[in-house]
Amino acid sequence: MECEGETAECYVKFFTLINETIDKVAPGEKFNPLAGFMADEAGGIQEGLRRVYGQAVLERIKTCEFHFLQCANRRQRARLHSDKSKEFFTRVTRALLATQTSSAYHAAVTELKDFVAKKPSKDQRGFLITWFQWWDDRRSHVFPAFARKNAPAANLAEVIHSKWKTTGGEHLSLVDAAAEDIKDSLILERQFKGYETDHFVGGSGPSVSSMSSRNYQAQKNRAEKYAKDLIEEDPSDLTSRADALGTFQVNPLSSHRATKP
Fold first, then answer.
1. Are 261 and 130 in contact (CB under 8 A)?
2. Percent of the chain with pLDDT strictly greater than 90
3. Phi, psi of 35 (to 5 degrees)
4. Selection from 60, 2, 45 nearest residue 252 by Cα
5. Where are the residues of the annotated region Disordered (predicted)?
6. Domain spans of the chain?
7. Helix-, strand-, coil-residue percentages of the chain, each rounded to 5
8. Which of 49, 57, 64, 100 is the least crowded, having the fewest Cβ atoms under 10 Å away?
């Protein structure tokens, strides 16, 4: 969304207008997705959602995993001194997104902390601790071991945002933004019609069948890890999401990513 500032006030206005529009065509209804709200970690949108939907909405926020990887690779990995360290950091950050249970997550965290402990000075690896703590406080939003199970992994709206950015569609006036929205809607409508007549050629991303296969394998892996935890009498995952939710407090002024310590 292009606006003067990504503040709680702007987001309150945005969601209020969306809900008023929906109510005109479907009285009593509002924008309230079943899978929750895909958002980044900017405090403005979180505070805006809370003001419009209430405190409980904070349990339904899901952060785009791509944002986490982007924050890790562009701003932290680049600060490490050796290729070996960078390779390790890439592996462990991806492992955090691959873990399906809290025990596996904490094992990856321990591995990261041990890595930092070998060179703890801030100009070596110490800066990773404050960076990771920022994300760990928000683990119920981003990491699969704690996040909502039925929410998407990535924010698909980024596709449109990227298109607008690369074509100069930033900070548009209301009329120009409306024109862009209508144009995108018409293009999407034609694509749907093409899909219905078997003439639409999709993108190069994973197919529905491959995504289903991935989801099935993820569930299978999660079932095995749940069973292992229960056998070892460590049923921590039964309360891990509730505990993770308890560590997060909205800061309306927070950036959408961990700032450089």
1. yes
2. 30
3. -80, -5
4. 45
5. 242-261
6. 1-162+239-260
7. 65, 0, 35
8. 57
